[in-house]
């Protein structure tokens, strides 16, 4: 994975990526020979029907799971050569995540949920940055509220702040508008791309939302675990 032009260096790359799982009926092929390269600063949507392998692919690209076969590179590192602890160290502070179900810690306040990854990354200015990002998403007045005291849209805004607070090089988002109504989802889309543009972050997202996919520079479409090259743009 070398390149004479750093701007063209893929921050995420997959080669012949395949994922199988064992079931009671035998092996089940989820992804088959996926080829993918994403450049720094690019925005990419992964689309496809339910069960097409979208979330599985996202988890593999982020180093959350290991493939059955094929090669994966994340931020210049060969994930196949790293154990779980090493993959976690690679992600710390350099990768942000946004999930459909928000994944906020229920016992922590809005501010504390943003603060946690900053502290784990060893940021000396963690509390200052958490407060800054809480204000960036318009929820400074809700800093002491726990997730159960926040609406779905507010929870996802906290999740966006948490994802971007560490100045990550890549943000992975899995159906970030999936649990929101259309109006709230549209506001979250605007906020997501506003934050991403200002941070110059690479954004890779899984979505069923056509409006969200259309905002990305490029998309790939999965059909039964295969990249549909005719639908990719």
Description:
This protein has 233 residues and is an alpha/beta fold. The protein is built from seven helices and ten strands. It has a six-stranded mixed sheet. A four-stranded antiparallel sheet has the order 2-1-4-5, with helices on one face. The chain starts with 9 loop residues before the first strand and ends in a 6-residue tail after the last strand.
Short précis:
The chain is an alpha/beta fold. It has helices at residues 54-61, 84-91, 110-120, 126-136, 152-164, 182-199, 210-214, and strands spanning 10-23, 26-39, 43-48, 69-74, 77-78, 95-99, 170-174, 202-206, 218-223, 226-227.
The global form is globular
Classification by helices and strands: alpha/beta
Query: Into which percentage range does the β-strand content fall?
Result: 25-35%
Please count the helical segments: 7
Report the sheet with the most strands, covering strand number, pairing sense and barrel closure. 6 strands, mixed
Strand and helix order: EEEHEEHEHHHEHEHEE
What is the share of helical residues?
A: 25-40%
Strand order of the largest sheet: 6-7-8-3-9-10
Rounded to the nearest angstrom, the distance between the terminal CA atoms is: 24 Å
- Average predicted confidence as pLDDT: 91
Poorly predicted runs are none
Give me the Rg, rounded: 18 Å
According to DSSP, the number of beta strands is 10
